[in-house]
Q: What sequence folds into this?
């Protein structure tokens, strides 16, 4: 099976590839969003700790 | 003298009804809304009674559902504002039982008027008179289910800003099964069939929501009151 | 039986560290399984007799749908644990899981629609499964909206917990009633998505994807949870030491 046939997906390419593409995008997005959520939580917490240290 | 539970329940029911009937607009609003939405359909789709008859079941049910949603946010709002709710929680009576007459009073003031008005609206949509009883029974059960489920939403969203929009968002998915069978029942009656199946299922849902909702409502009320 | 390990789990600092250590053990196997499943589903599996290559959408559609329900069950269970045993971490689990589950539901609906178009001829069909999946998405959105509307975290946790539990009771009712409705209003086509026996070379990539998605959820949930724990424990002393590391 060559590349052209594979990409063509038997004529259903316009349905198959967006499906897989969308799912992959969502999978990646959720990972990044979770990481960002964690990182921003750490950032905020560090800032609080720093500012509370500065106050005597 | 200690108030017994049944006395407390009866007092709650009567008290709520008295308050509700003092504010006529609050009872009239859902009815007017129901009427107006039903009127929108022939204006927007088609004035042919033959065509309207085919969709009347769904139209009446959707309009009634939306109209019933209108009054839900007021269920606990006044009590929350004037401290009555706190008294209910502190009263020593089991809260889940006290919640039941409140739901019943809400239905009497909000759902029952819709049921009573529905035959007139149904006729305007070409529904044959034979189907009217089924319509009223299905709506009675349906608005009852909505009062029970809506009470949960009202308790959860108590005191929140934009609470009414959120309330609809929360309650509508829960009400969808009732809508499916209720509209189906009316549809069957319009076409001359006996709608036993859907009505029985509707009845089952009604019993289920009536028994389980007070538990959820009392939990939600305690949470909202902290 | 020594239950110390269980009680330690509910302790935020202990859980935070444990979650951090466990995440790669979920993440990497998930990545591998999904990669292998994708290759198996897109390349190795033969095209379907009736649906041709369009059937391959099942390899993303079925796992998404399965996860959307699994995550909701997780949310509801965590909510119940949080309410009954008053474990704040359980509420954090529900809060962290919700957006992930909502995206899975969205993915299930969109891939289902993309699969439906070539198979049924329309982008949307009020098929029982699609409809109840749509309602599931509404339940997720309601949960997320309620949480966002309540400022007090404790009240938000408990209110959302009640909502999640009410929703889970309603889920089988919805699916059952929509199934009945679909049967009552049965159209001309009978959808045949029951897989009585899939040939193995089509089945194994699906199993790989299902397991991969589940482990993926574990990894993402743990990461989000660590974020949740930090936000909830903002003023706790253990946090200072932990972040200083």
A:
């Amino acid at each position: 099976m060559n590349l052209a046939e594979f990409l063509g997906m038997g004529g259903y390419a316009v349905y198959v590839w967006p499906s897989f593409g969308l799912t992959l995008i969502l999978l990646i997005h959720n990972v990044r969003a979770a990481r960002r959520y964690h990182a921003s939580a750490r950032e905020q917490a560090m800032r609080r700790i720093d500012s509370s240290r500065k106050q005597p | 003298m200690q108030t017994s539970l049944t006395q407390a329940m009866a007092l709650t029911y009567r008290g709520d009804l008295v308050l509700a009937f003092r504010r006529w607009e609050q009872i009239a609003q859902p009815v007017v809304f129901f009427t107006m939405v039903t009127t929108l359909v022939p204006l927007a789709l088609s004035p042919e009674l033959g065509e309207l008859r085919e969709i009347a079941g769904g139209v009446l049910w959707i309009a009634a559902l939306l109209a019933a949603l209108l009054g839900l946010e007021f269920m606990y709002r006044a009590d929350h504002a004037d401290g009555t709710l706190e008294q209910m929680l502190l009263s020593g009576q089991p809260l889940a039982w006290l919640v039941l007459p409140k739901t019943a009073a809400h239905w009497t003031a909000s759902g029952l008027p819709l049921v009573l008005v529905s035959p007139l609206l149904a006729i305007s949509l070409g529904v044959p008179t034979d189907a009217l009883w089924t319509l009223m029974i299905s709506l009675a059960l349906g608005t009852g289910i909505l009062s029970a489920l809506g009470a949960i939403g009202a308790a959860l969203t108590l005191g929140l800003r934009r609470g009414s929009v959120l309330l609809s968002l929360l309650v509508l998915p829960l009400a969808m099964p009732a809508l499916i069978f209720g509209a189906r029942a009316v549809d069957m009656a319009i076409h001359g069939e006996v709608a036993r199946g859907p009505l029985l299922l509707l009845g089952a849902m009604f019993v289920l929501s009536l028994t389980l909702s007070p538990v959820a409502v009392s939990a939600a009320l305690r949470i909202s009151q902290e | 039986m020594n239950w110390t390990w269980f009680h330690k789990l509910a302790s935020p600092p202990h859980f935070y560290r444990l979650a951090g250590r466990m995440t790669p053990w979920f993440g990497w196997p998930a990545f591998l399984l999904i990669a292998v499943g994708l290759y198996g589903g897109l390349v190795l599996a033969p095209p379907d007799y009736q649906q041709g290559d369009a059937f391959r959408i099942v390899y993303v559609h079925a796992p998404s749908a399965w996860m959307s329900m699994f995550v909701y069950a997780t949310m509801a269970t965590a909510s119940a644990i949080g309410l009954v045993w008053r474990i704040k971490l359980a509420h954090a689990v529900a809060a962290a899981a919700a957006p992930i589950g909502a995206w899975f539901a969205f993915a299930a609906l969109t891939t289902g629609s993309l699969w439906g178009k070539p198979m049924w001829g329309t982008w949307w069909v009020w098929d029982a499964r699609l409809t109840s999946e749509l309602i599931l998405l509404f339940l997720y959105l309601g949960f997320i909206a309620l949480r966002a509307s309540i400022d007090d975290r404790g009240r938000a946790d408990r209110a959302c917990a009640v909502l999640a539990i009410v929703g889970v009771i309603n889920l089988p009712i919805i699916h059952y009633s929509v199934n009945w409705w679909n049967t009552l209003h049965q159209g001309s086509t009978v959808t045949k998505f029951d897989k009585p026996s899939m040939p193995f070379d089509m089945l194994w990539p699906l199993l790989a994807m299902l397991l991969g998605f589940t482990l993926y959820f574990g990894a993402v949930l743990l990461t989000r949870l660590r974020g949740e724990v930090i936000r909830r424990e903002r003023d706790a002393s253990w946090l200072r030491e932990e972040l200083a590391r």
About this structure: The first helix of chain C runs from residue 4 to 9. Residues 7 and 158 of chain C are 21 Å apart (CA to CA).
